[in-house]
Predict the 3D structure of the following.
Amino acid sequence: MGARQNRRECISRPQEPVFANEVAGEIAFGCENYGYSHEDIQSHVHRAAADIKIQDILDHSLHSLSYGMRQKVAIASAEAIDPEIYVMDEPSANLDIASTYRFADIIRDLKQQGKTIIIAEHRLYYLMDLADRFLCVQKGKIVREFTAQQMKALSNQEIRALGLRTPDLHQIEQAEILSAATSEVVLEVKKLNHSFGETIVAKDIDFQCRKGEVVALIGPNGTGKSTIGRILAGLLKEKSGEVVLFGKYCRPKDRLGKVWYIPQDLDSQLFGEDLLDELTTGAEVSPERKKAAEEILEALELMPFVKQHPSTLSGGQKQRLALGVALMHEAPIIVLDEPTSGLDGTNMRNVSRMIRKLAKMGRTIIVITHDAECALACCERAIRLENGYITDDFQIRGAELLLEKIGYDQKEG
């Protein structure tokens, strides 16, 4: 029993739950392994689910949930075991603002209970009033240590030099975006509807996108953003409504290749032996095709890594490689699902610059994101979804309006 208790003192959770098929089973998994009684397991599961506010999805399949909702389940499964030490890896990745604040409240409660918490994290804003120390790690070494006050005092220039994200989203300087959008409407969505059982994820969705435009698709977790992205790409069939590409109604199979969807789980989408193979897989590699792939890798600043296996790349490099695959297929419209999730400040800014470069090349980009820093770095317009409905469609004119729409200052969430 002593060895079991020692293992329970320190709990480390990956970014996603991977042990069960349904939510309740995932949260219960750790408790079951530590020999809790059936009554205790039920009590711990329901308490943890209530704390994270996911008690209404306990019987849902994990595979039906968005990545943000899966992240909530992972947090609940760690809390259910009630360890003395928590080690969390990017716990805010894919969480909307309200969920991030609720998570911060949980961390605050755990601190008050005397728990020790270590968080490996890139997003810093929600930790400013929580963390006692900030350790900056580079190339496996701690290079700087800060108090919260010292973190808040860093200038934007110092933050960029350290490769960090901003500790205060109000300090974000919106990038000077020269719109590449033309007057040509390349994508039109008309009265789009979709649901999973009784859960509505898209209700009478209407919007247009122009050639060269970069649009952020924002809104709470589980509200239908990824579902709409998959529908646009023809990977999921709408219940009703129309998707019009370049003035013509397109059935799902006709949208394949014209709208390219890049999901959050990039590792499951990369198949090549090296970067050149990744871009040319599935077709005969003619000299012309090889040259085109090399030019794309050069434009994406990936040629120095051309001989590497895709799985060895950093998160930002994988995102650029996935963009390269879309370019090889000449997709005029690209949907990026949380492209900066889990990226540090440097890679977030690099991916944002690449998105702007693609827009200048005439591509239309839809960025599904909770990342205000990313949206302000590359998007000129935002469409907000909630409960399957479009609640706002607005031009991004500085940080304040965007932060208001994503609920940055609504700390009670």
